[in-house]
């Protein structure tokens, strides 16, 4: 184990990222355990931190840890020392506390245990997946072509650079269409984002609001596909997330677009 750690992590220059990843996962699991115990009213567990009537959210401590860890990481030159591991761990722990309350930052109100609070769990899962890929050695498509690998590289091939840009554009369009996971996967695996970009948008996404008028054929097709494919997948994802993060408010049986989809429109035949 020590030999693997030395060869795969330290010698490969992955110690800061490894320390960040471990601290991030551990921090998220700990804070979720803490808030679940507080929610359950366990007497022996410390409650929420308050100053008078002010509830101090753990995102405050997360920002502080990220600031100290980030600045320390910039100052430490030796990338294989225990000091950089500590700095990266501080940053990872802080990032976990911040992303666990991502919904609070997004909505500017406490929605932690509501349906909107699931956004925080989604953000953490995305961060874990991306960091895990980077830690395993996977790099975004075009990393070397744009000279980001640090090895100098050779002559830039215009055709390959064009493919990288097209793939990146596909990822952006996929994200705008509400396809978070395929959009991010396309950053690492070429063509995936391009395929996702040409398919129907997810109901409620920015692309759907901009490009699919209510009652149009594309709008109805997007809703039917969402009901048939995406909603069951979301329910399965929520069940898995609740095992780790706790149960939020019950997901509605019929989201607004589902109710609209069940009403016959003028364009449908009786």
Description:
The protein has 270 residues and is mostly helical. The protein folds into 3 domains: 1-138, no CATH class; 139-195, no CATH class; 200-270. It is built from 12 helices and 2 strands. It has helices at 2-10, 15-40, 58-75, 82-99, 102-107, 118-135, 158-176, 180-188, 192-198, 206-211, 217-245, 256-262, and strands at 50-51, 54-55. It has a two-stranded antiparallel ribbon. A hairpin with a 2-residue loop joins β1 and β2. α7 packs antiparallel against α8 (180-188). The protein is flat and about 55 Å long. The protein starts with a helix and ends in an 8-residue tail after the last helix. The model is unreliable at 252-270 (pLDDT under 50).
Give a brief rundown of this model.
This protein has helices spanning 2-10, 15-40, 58-75, 82-99, 102-107, 118-135, 158-176, 180-188, 192-198, 206-211, 217-245, 256-262, and strands spanning 50-51, 54-55. It is mainly α and 270 residues long.
List the helices and strands and how they pair.
Elements: H1 2-10, H2 15-40, E1 50-51, E2 54-55, H3 58-75, H4 82-99, H5 102-107, H6 118-135, H7 158-176, H8 180-188, H9 192-198, H10 206-211, H11 217-245, H12 256-262
Antiparallel strand pairs: 1-2
The total of helices stands at 12
Quaternary structure state of the chains depicted: single chain
Tally of separate domains: 3
Count the beta strands: 2
Q: In percent, how much strand structure appears in the residues? A: under 5%
**Global structural class:** mainly alpha
- Spans of 5+ residues with little confidence (pLDDT < 50)? 252-270
Distance between the termini: 67 Å
